[in-house]
Model the fold of this input.
Amino acid sequence: MLSNRKMTSVSPTHSDGSASSLSLQDSWEIIEGLKGNPGNIQEPEKQEGFLLKRRKWPMKGWQKRYFLLEKGILKYSKRGAELKKGKLHGCIDVGLSVMSIKKKTKAIDLDTNDNIYHLKEMKSQQLFDDWVSKLRHHRVFRQNEIAMYPHERLLFHPSSHLSPNPNDSMRQVPGCVSPPASPHLHTSHPNLSTAEANIQEAFAFLDSPDSPTDANRLQEDFCRLANNSESLVSGRPLGSILGILEFPEEGWDLPDGSRPLVHQVSNESRASIPESMSEFFDAQEYQLTSSSSENEASDDDSYISDVSDSVSIDNAGSGGSSVQVARRRTTLPSPQPSSSSVSLWNILKNNIGKDLSKVAMPVQLNEPLNTLQRLCEEVEYSELLDTANHTQDPYQRMVYVATFAVSAYASSYHRAGSKPFNPVLGETYECDRPDKGFRFIAEQVSHHPPVSACHCDSNNFTFWQDVQWKNKFWGKSMEIVRIGTTHVTLPAFGDHYEWNKVTSCIHNILSGQRWIEHYGEMSIKNTSSDACQCKVTFVKARSWSSTVNEIEGMVTDTGGRVIHTFFGKWHEGVYQGVPPSAICIWRANPMPVDQDQYYGFTQFAVELNELDAALKPLLPPTDTRFRLDQRCLEEGNIEGAEEQKRRIEELQRGRRKVLEENNVTHKPRFFKKSKDDTWLSANIYWEQRKNPRFSREDFPVLW
Done:
């Protein structure tokens, strides 16, 4: 930490704004940071006390936590006594965070890229004002320190709570060390270079000191290592990095009492599983109790030694009959254009904490698919439901259904860099796949709020859902909460399964490589029988761990006894059982070799917007494939796409105005509302398509 110096006091910068006081209280206000050149700023006074902190997973409520703000670092724990003992739940560098406040609700939000922290002061307006004032001052102080001493930024890491003793000499260096790359990036990240991956691996060792003495040595060694970081990035081998440090050969204890895991994968099993599945799997991070909502580690030191790869799924989609597979395209007409000319900050800076579904975005930020087609991507791995419908054991059926629910997120892994088109009211999309044994139909049934409904049927299952999205931008990240319930029925057993969606978050919205994570708890129940239930945990990435995208689930009977367990990564595969005898239940299809040039699309996604001569006369004019802005973008015509997008949006505003003037409510064509306010298929689409009667029907002009 920097030594104390005589400094002059500089008041923190306040955010601009000429709106009225009442208006400011109702909206989010972005707190500006350091302006001008860095200089001597007096170290602000400490601030501490209780605040409410929203749990990291949705619908889990708020927790009372004790916070300490010191030298621009905000630390928190359950109680002040635990803070003094160094038992921290987390640390936030407010200087590197985007800060916004809402006076009316006494809310403070800090977006660190890795996490979005939602805080509240509920006791009094005075205490809220005190916290905001102190945070402003500490934020400017911290930014000034970073500007004057750039190496300070590398020396802080939110995992400083891993220090065995906060009062020892280790405090001379602020917190634990931090890698130059994002702590969540690992060897399976699509855009992580080999050098960055090597550095990341080196830092994984630094996070686990054996003792205060070892920790001090590690800190000192890291300071020397940091000075040579340029040579590391330029190609210095990992062995030379690790050669600087001396690590104990045996396992060592972490300060919380848990132990890091020794990786034991045989050469045979290593060759049979996905590359990043051969990483460490630490069971301590995946407790499925209600207390796991804050994602805190347990004392479980179980580990995975190796995993077998016996895929046992048969494609029963067509009842075993042979189906002639239509020839489909394998690439898009044009690669993805650059969006570097678009200033996202200018678009988003006035929308902190707001729903982005109503914010117009440039077409360069889109991908040539829309939300209705994204819903269709959720049934890419429908063979899991085919298998479930032929499985007699109800507990094993639940495993297949749960794995299908997890597989719906797989296609999003490479898609954080762009967004789908928003469907206009009345827009439809069909996907008829005899090769997979299903037919899919979707329709945009509501515009405000935006609601998309879909229905997919097969001889082996029926799948339906209606989804409303709430997208909120928090300064560096965008949080996506999907509201709605997903349903699946299996006709062979009369089962009716229901489950919720988890929260998604896109990080590095404004700069750096964007990446997406999904986190929360998914509960799956069979409403036709109470024989078993399932809970799947999407584990939130932790700033001090390289593990990301992990899931773990368990199937229990009516008495709560665990019958089956499964684990894996939502973008790679799911494994059932206990290592080393775990069996692969599902694995994601390989990506096209040039996916990075074509929006990160899977092969299934590439096929969704294809329009051939045989299909064209069968579709209603409202089908997404006829949408001109999306087609222009797919063909690489950016100017045409932007022009058509504006025209289509203007047409929608005109139709809405006519409905309002005539006091008429839009009525969806292929879906109807049930008694419980969910949208169900009217079961008329495929019948009308047979004749085809669409050519004789009266449809609105959408484009």
Remarks:
- The chain has a mean pLDDT of 75.
- Residues 671 and 681 are 4 Å apart (CA to CA).
- Residues 125-148 form the longest helix (24 residues).
